[in-house]
Design brief:
Low-confidence stretches: 291-295
Strand content: 15-25%
Largest sheet: 8 strands, parallel, barrel
Shape: globular
Oligomer: single chain
Structural class: alpha/beta
Radius of gyration: 20 Å
Strand order of the largest sheet: 1-2-3-4-7-8-9-12
Number of helices: 9
Distance between the termini: 40 Å
Length: about 300
């Protein structure tokens, strides 16, 4: 079974509306001597949006996957749903991942279908029975994909049938399924406000060794005590601060900026990616210093 490939830095979702600006960006990068400012270290796509896409669009996607690191983030597998696991979709996803050399695949720890697609990410009840149910489906999905799945903690607005905390439920699924985690920092912040819990305590409870990569995004304040995860606004300062706290907990992990609606000019998105790297940089130095000291001691002893 494939392990997650090496990605790093700050990534961006590859949206079709951005293809033109991104092609111009690639051309400008080829003419530039500065390989860091305005960089995009990896891209993320939803496989459902690209399965069986050929022609000009298919060739454009191929040109990106041949030149850049990619991850795939699923939208409709419905890991916690009552309907049978969609193994036909999984085989199609497997072909897309193999064709484009993508090792990392993630999906939401939620459900989005029953007798048809529900077009929303609905919360799985935080129960022991649900842990067993969803973990078995993740294990089956991993077998078909021949890859470890990174499951994403989702924003939610109700917790029906709750028998344990969200953090405990997430950890139980990770252990039972032996899968990885896509830790969405904005979703942690959103849920901490909506459900009145400590966001940093949730981050502390997540197993650093299972975190494949991170998501960060903007949201909408419906009321002082109700936040809607919108992916339609810039990241706010408290979420940036929580991202820095996350790096302190688990080390610097690849971080994907999500922007799906009200997409601004590419230059603005590149500025947010530079902000991610600015937060990552001192944390990377902190991680490297102990190793550098060990190397110096070893050389002295030799």
């Amino acid at each position: 079974m494939l392990r997650p490939a090496a990605i790093h830095g700050a990534g961006l979702g590859l949206r079709r509306s951005l293809l033109g600006p991104l092609q111009d960006w690639r051309a400008s990068r080829e003419r530039s001597d500065d390989d860091r400012a305005g960089a995009i270290d990896f891209f993320e796509v939803a496989p459902e949006n690209w399965i069986n896409v050929g022609g000009r669009l298919g060739k454009t996607l191929r040109s990106f996957t041949e030149a850049h690191a990619f991850v795939c983030h699923g939208l409709s597998l419905s890991l916690g749903g009552p309907a049978p696991l969609d193994e036909t979709l999984l085989h199609k996803i497997r072909r897309l991942l193999d064709e484009h050399g993508v090792a990392i695949y993630s999906e939401h720890l939620s459900y989005c279908s029953d007798d048809g697609h529900l077009y929303d990410l609905l919360p799985i009840p935080y129960t022991e029975a649900a842990v067993d149910y969803v973990a078995a489906r993740i294990r089956r999905a991993q077998d078909i994909l021949d890859r470890r799945i990174a499951i994403e903690n989702v924003s939610c607005y109700a917790t029906p049938g709750r028998e344990m905390s969200e953090a405990d439920f997430t950890n139980a699924v990770l252990r039972a399924a032996d899968c990885d985690l896509l830790l969405d920092v904005n979703n942690v912040y959103v849920n901490s406000v909506n459900h009145r819990y400590d966001a940093k305590a949730f981050i502390d409870a997540m197993p650093a060794e299972r975190i494949a990569y991170l998501h960060i995004a903007g949201h909408y304040d419906e009321a002082p005590d109700l936040i809607v995860d919108s992916h339609a606004a810039p990241v706010i300062d408290p979420v940036w601060d929580l991202l820095d706290y996350t790096y302190a907990h688990c080390g610097v992990k690849p971080t994907l900026l999500e922007r799906d609606f009200r997409i601004p000019p590419l230059a603005e998105l590149l500025g947010e990616l530079d902000h991610i790297r600015a937060i990552q940089s001192p944390r990377q130095v902190e991680t490297a210093l102990p190793f550098a000291r060990r190397e110096k001691v070893a050389q002295s002893a030799g």
